[in-house]
Amino acid sequence: MSIRLLFTPLRFSGAQIFSTVVVFAVLYSFSSPAAHAQNRVSKRFPAGKNVRVELKNISGTITVESWNRDEIKITASLEAPNANVSPKLMGECVSIDVMGDNRGRGDVGDVNFKVQVPQDSSVDIETRRGDITVSNIRGALVRAHISTEGDITLSGISATQVLAQNTIGDIFFDGGFSRGGTYQFQSTKGNISVRIPSDSAFRLVAAAPTKKIALGEFWNNGFKTLGDGRKFVGDVGDGRSSVIVTTFQGSITFLRR
Amino acid sequence: MNCEKCQDLIGDLVDGGLSREDESTLSLHLEECLACADVRNDLESIVAFCRNHRGEYSAPPNADALWLRIRNVIEAETQLAAKAASTRPPAKSFWSGWMSRSWELSMPQLAASAAAIILVVSLGTTVGLRRWDNARATGPVASSPRSEAGTGVRDRMWQQQQAINYWNQRVETNKVRWNQGMRDTFERNLKVIDQAVNDSLNELNRDPHDEVSEEMLNAALNEKLALLREFSDL
């Protein structure tokens, strides 16, 4: 009897088959590793004036923007389930060290950050790989360093010291040069664009072996051309701030804001 | 004979040590000169007194007081001499002494001095011109600043290369821990930096004194070093 039942063909309706497929799909999607990806960590810190944010990442995008609150909010999306992100407050400095927090844990994948800070904050960011975007910061320092590849976009920046450096990727700066400030942009294989107000005053040293240096309306006859057009040195206005722009295999463009 | 010479010889005359010729000459002068004759008379009386009273010397009643007075007199004279020296006009400098000095040169001395000056000036000019010509003909020589800069670049490159080798070894041992994506990224970027280093080196081979290429080479090597150092921690 039981053997006969085993070999008896079963009949299923289309609705039954469809609902079974849907149930399995839902179960699979919840049990897959993708469900564990993008763990989110969010933390807030009280911030006084002149606060500083130091972020050391390995891989992933980093976005820093200002907001109208006296606090710092750090949101991290972690790709790997075993990754650890522990922001720390030390005096006036909020520090996030992904490498230090994950030493010995193996590959932690991408960690994408969104950091919201008061406008007058200083920002010091470095990562091995991934884009960095910083906007509307007016603190003393903005530093964006990518060891390898990733674009750097700095917009609405009014800091006295700005450093942006990568190997492969473009650098875009949109902001103002403060009197006595220092600004350094360097890329090995990337285009560097600097967008500043027309009345900016600075001393410029721009070098690009590709000879693609366009100073636009900031060019004047006082500029010294060196190395057959590979380097320009000169003052714009009273030259009170110092600007150094270097790209090995890309172009340099100055734009009026 | 004059008075000065006469008074020099009076002592010998009193002692009886003069030649006959000198004695007669001196006597003639003493007959004519009363001042010198007085000196001779004083000296003869002193000598005669000493001879007559030899061995009769007695110490003064208070020898200590006498020596004290003598010392006071000497010190007072020394202080006076020092004061006089300080109020004296300063000694002439070498240059003013040289300028105020009068020179008397004979014609042969004058000719020899002129010949010596001409010889020194012409030698100096010849040596100077020869050096200048050499510098122009050969360009920057080994001791020139540019050449030193070239040596500096090689030294710096060598030092940087040593550091690069060290960090490279550390990176190689750690690389196995990275994921494939990170390894690919690292290799790709290292290649880009190496390309920048090679471009700068090629330019420097074409023109060893190209300062822009030198700077770019230095920057590229620093960047390579930084990349290796940062990835050695990973």
Task: Describe this structure in a few short sentences.
The complex is a heterodimer of chains A (257) and B (234). Chain A has 257 residues and is mainly β.
Q: What oligomeric state best describes the polypeptide chains here?
A: heterodimer
Number of helices of chain A: 3
The main pleated sheet of chain B reads as: none
Shape of chain B: elongated
Range of strand content of chain A: over 45%
How does the helix and strand content of chain B classify structurally?
mainly alpha
Radius of gyration of chain B: 47 Å
Mean pLDDT of chain A: 89
What does this structure look like?
The complex is a heterodimer of chains A (257) and B (234). With 257 residues, chain A is mainly β. Helices cover 11% and strands 48% of the residues of chain A. Chain A has a domain at 36-129: Pectate Lyase C-like (3 Solenoid). Chain A has helices spanning 2-6, 14-31, 98-101, and strands spanning 39-46, 52-59, 62-66, 71-78, 88-90, 93-97, 111-117, 122-129, 132-135, 141-146, 152-157, 161-168, 171-175, 182-189, 192-196, 202-207, 213-214, 224-226, 231-236, 241-247, 252-256. Chain A is globular and about 90 Å long. Mean pLDDT of chain A is 89; it is low at 30-37. Chain B starts with a helix and ends with a helix. The A-B interface holds A 58-59, 99, 106-107, 109, 128-129, 147-149, 167-168, 186, 188-189, 207, 209, 226-227, 230-231, 246, 248-249 and B 177-179, 181-182, 185-186, 188-189, 192-193, 195-196, 199-200, 203, 210-213, 215-216, 219-220, 223, 226-227, 230-231, 233-234.
Features:
heterodimer; A: 257 residues; mainly beta; Pectate Lyase C-like; eleven-stranded mixed sheet; ten-stranded mixed sheet; 3 helices; 21 strands; 11% helix; B: 234 residues; mainly alpha; 3 domains; 0% strand; elongated
